[in-house]
Design goal:
single chain; mainly alpha; about 70% helix
């Protein structure tokens, strides 16, 4: 059996990053909810995204559009 060294700093940083990703995805959905029912496929796409940079870009788009359809168009759906 091979044991690897546990690096607490790496673990904690990974957990923080995961939290930022989830919070950003939830913020996008919160903005879009103002425009009506979010299609389940779009909701899943946003919640499954793990690229924080892309989520931040989507968040800015969600803050500027006026419809869910416009958001989908801007992100390339």
């Amino acid at each position: 059996m091979c044991l690897t060294e546990f690096n607490e700093e790496v673990f904690v940083e990974g957990m923080k990053e995961e939290g930022r990703i989830q919070a950003t995805a939830e913020n996008i959905l919160e903005l879009l909810e103002d425009y009506g029912e979010i299609p389940e496929t779009l909701r899943k796409l946003i919640m499954k995204q793990t690229d924080l940079g892309l989520l931040r870009k989507w968040h800015k788009i969600a803050a500027r559009v006026e419809t869910i359809e416009a958001f989908e168009e801007k992100i390339g759906l």
